[in-house]
Design goal:
The chain folds into three domains: 191 residues, Phosphoenolpyruvate Carboxykinase, domain 1 (3-Layer(aba) Sandwich), CATH 3.40.449; 273 residues, Phosphoenolpyruvate Carboxykinase, domain 3 (Alpha-Beta Complex), CATH 3.90.228.20; 79 residues, Phosphoenolpyruvate Carboxykinase, domain 2, CATH 2.170.8. It is built from 16 helices and 31 strands. A hairpin with a 4-residue loop joins strand 30 and strand 31. Helix 11 crosses helix 16. The longest helix is centred in the middle third of the chain and has 17 residues. It is globular.
């Protein structure tokens, strides 16, 4: 037991889980650097972690090939009434799901250490923060939680004798018999993997997977699926959004929250280096955003995390030089390739392929090999303190006031570069109808990567909203009612529009700051816009394009609205909205009808 723990509810819960899971021993995490180092040394000795000679205090891990990404088909929201979970979630009744999982948990930690991880999402003591406690038998999960959250004795002290916490139970689902040798990445077969949420009890149970958001329960499970339900109850927003501060040459500061599905440049935007002289960008967060209306009547946001759990492939000196700098030390890499000189490598890294490497499955690899060296969902875990563009006040207890909210997605056709909502209600419609081409971060029920396809991903929250999404849309409308004239301005972007030759029309990356500048100028009433059927759009002259190589023909496509294509798009939007039945907000239907009317003019 932790020597500092005075919380009887927590002590009883830990004792109950110990009796159920039957570990060899129990260890309460204190969050110290020594603890992190000892766990890493333990995993290196076991052959699980590989030290990287080229990167100080950095390690490479290889997961089991069946355990490489979020498993949406095995992720559940369990409520007494299925309708409350909504068509956006997989549902099993609480009694049935708990019976199934309790049987799996029975003795599941035999031969292993049970780690108790007290953690805080958000600055300890912040009015926007929440406390969780994760129990796990995975030292890999512990070291990642060390980086991603605030862990240890400070959390226990803040919890006190009667503080509330979110219980999060995790097991890799691979008990060891006496004398049995462990595998390098223990996990359960696919059919025994469960990532389960019980929002009516603020409870998370995860079994069978040791990877990413399936095992780091403070991330998607607590920060989004459970927190979204709590946020609705308490009147705030828990969102899958980046957070960014922009400062103009005149010193004017703007705070931006942005919702983007995977592989749409969210981390790149969070760490953007503006190409316009005098503009400065600072990173607050790249994935999770909790927003609450404070006494000044404005929406304030925090990043509840402490680190980044980013996708490695596609991260390069050209796409994200800031990330490449921060990955030089104290980083955990997962499913990247290992070079002969003790470094990591992945496709689209911007560096020449090594003549020889060990791929993510532990096999010899050369540039002639048929398979990729790194898994397409290979990851890095790194503290935000190592980010060169870190905003020094990113963890202020009151967060930052939000001026701009951006929605975006990856669409090769139809969607223009940028447009602005007419008002908050139209902005909610824009977020609710968002769509994107899918990514390698998702696998199906059989363990196979899902092929890319366009799917609706409202607010980039479809996999993460812990309740009926129709009610989620209504909650956004109600937040706007409370914010009134102090509501942030809402925009939609698409950096990925392609020409007839299949090439991107917009240079992207640092030049995306030119679109952000237009947004900031719109907030200040300094930039023009023309009204279109889908929203307010800039003319080419409204964008600062000095030094950018974009042809007039490309700009015409980027800033155009194809009414015929949008009329077809509406059919898909409408079909998606109809899935929510009686939970479909009337105000969303009003916005849909208004768009139809504007397109028909």
């Amino acid at each position: 037991m932790s020597v500092n723990c005075q919380n009887n509810k927590l002590i009883r819960w830990v004792e109950e889980i110990e009796a159920l899971c039957k570990p060899e021993k129990v260890y309460w995490c204190n969050g110290s650097a020594r603890e992190y180092q000892d766990l890493m040394a333990q995993m290196v000795k076991a052959g699980t972690g590989i030290p990287l000679e080229k990167r100080k205090e950095s390690f490479l891990f290889r997961s089991d090939p069946t355990d490489v990404a979020r498993i949406e088909s095995h992720t559940y929201v369990s409520t007494r009434n299925q309708e409350n979970a909504g068509p956006n979630n997989n549902w099993i009744s609480p009694d049935e799901l708990k019976k199934t999982m309790s049987d799996l948990y029975d003795g599941c930690m035999a031969g292993r250490t049970m780690y108790v991880i007290p953690f805080s999402m958000g600055p300890i003591g912040s009015p926007l923060a929440k406390t969780g406690v994760q129990i796990t038998d995975s030292p890999y999960a512990v070291v990642n939680m060390h980086i991603m959250t605030r862990v240890g004795d400070r959390v226990i002290e803040a919890l006190g004798a009667d503080g509330e916490f979110y219980p999060c139970l995790h097991s890799v689902g691979a008990p060891l018999k006496p004398g049995e040798e462990d595998v390098k990445w223990p996990c359960a077969p696919m059919e025994k993997k469960y990532i389960s949420h019980f929002p009516e009890e603020n409870l998370i149970w995860s079994f069978g997977s040791g990877y990413g958001g399936n095992a780091l329960l403070g991330k998607k499970c607590l920060s989004l699926r459970i927190a979204s339900v709590v946020a609705r109850r308490e009147g705030w927003l828990a969102e899958h959004m980046l957070l960014l501060r922009l400062t103009s040459p005149e010193g004017r500061q703007y705070h931006v929250a942005g919702a983007f599905p995977s592989a749409c440049g969210k981390t790149n935007l969070a760490m953007i280096t503006p190409t316009m002289p005098g503009w400065k960008a600072e990173t607050i967060g790249d994935d999770i955003c909790w927003m609450k209306i404070l006494p000044d009547g404005r929406l304030h946001a925090i990043n509840p995390e402490m680190g980044f759990f980013g996708v490695a492939p596609g991260t390069s000196v050209s796409t994200n030089p800031v990330a490449m700098k921060m990955l030089q030390s104290r980083t955990i890499f997962t499913n990247c390739a290992l070079t002969d000189d003790g470094d990591v490598w992945w496709e689209e890294m911007g560096l020449p392929a090594p003549a020889r490497a060990i791929d993510w499955k532990g096999r010899d690899w050369t540039p002639e090999s048929k398979e990729a060296a790194a898994h397409p969902n290979a990851r890095f875990t790194v503290p935000i303190s190592q980010c060169p563009t870190e905003f020094s006040g990113w963890d202020h207890p009151d967060g930052v006031p939000i001026d701009i909210i951006i929605f975006g997605g990856r669409r090769g056709e139809m969607m223009p570069l940028v447009h602005e909502a007419f008002d908050w209600e139209h902005g909610v419609f824009m977020g609710a109808s968002a769509s994107s081409e899918t990514t390698a971060a998702i696998i199906d029920r059989n363990g196979n990567l899902m092929p890319p396809q366009v799917r609706r991903d409202p607010f980039a929250m479809l996999p993460f909203c812990g309740y009926n999404m129709g009610d989620y849309f209504q909650h956004w409308f109600e937040m706007g009612d409370r914010l009134g004239s102090k509501a942030p301005r809402i925009f939609y972007v698409n950096w990925f529009r392609k020409g007839e030759d299949g090439r991107f029309l917009w240079p992207g990356f640092g030049d995306n700051s030119r679109v952000l500048k237009w947004m900031c100028d719109r907030v200040d009433g300094k930039a023009g816009a023309r009204e279109s059927a889908i929203g307010m759009m800039p003319e080419a002259k409204d964008l600062d394009l000095s030094g950018v190589k974009v042809s007039p023909e490309a700009l015409e496509v980027l800033l155009s609205v194809d009414s015929a294509a949008w009329s077809e798009e509406i059919k898909d939007i409408e079909a998606f909205f109809m899935k929510f039945g009686d939970h479909y907000p009337e105000r969303l239907e009003k916005q849909l009808k208004a768009l139809k009317g504007r397109l028909s003019v």
